[in-house]
Amino acid sequence: MKNLVTSTEAKTNFGALLTAVQRAPVTIEKNGQPIAVMIAHEDYENYKRMTLENLQAELRIGIEQADRGELLDGEEVFRELLAPFEK
Questions:
Q1: How far is CA 21 from the centre of its chain?
Q2: Percent of the chain at pLDDT above 90?
Q3: Which helix (H) or strand (E) holds 30?
Q4: Distance between CA 84 and CA 87 in Å, rounded?
Q5: Residues in CB range of 1: below 8 A, 6 or more apart
């Protein structure tokens, strides 16, 4: 099976799709636009683990910065974020 299929092909060949995603992710398109990517369960579990590990690492960095007193004023941050839209 290809690594890019239409939603109709995915529906018609679901069993083959399940087999194919064990080897590589498969993108599913509808009306020529990608709408989903089907991956093996093991790959999904790895993705969740990596996402959680990244979040935990970012939180550790933030806590370390706070412990050092490197905090940002929330109002100042929002002013800077909104400044380009106020022109």
A1: 18
A2: 77
A3: strand 26-30
A4: 6
A5: 13, 16, 17, 19, 20, 26
Burial of 26: CB neighbours in 10 Å, binned 0-12, 13-18, 19+: buried
Q: Model's pTM, two decimal places?
A: 0.64
CA gap 3, 19 in Å, rounded: 12
The percent of residues above 70 in pLDDT, for the chain, comes to 99
Let me know: does 27 contact 45? Beta carbons within 8 Å. no
38, 26 contact by CB (below 8 A): yes
Q: For 2-28, what is each residue's pLDDT tens digit?
A: 899 999 999 999 999 999 999 999 999
Taking the CB of residue 21, how many other CB atoms lie within 10 A of it? 19
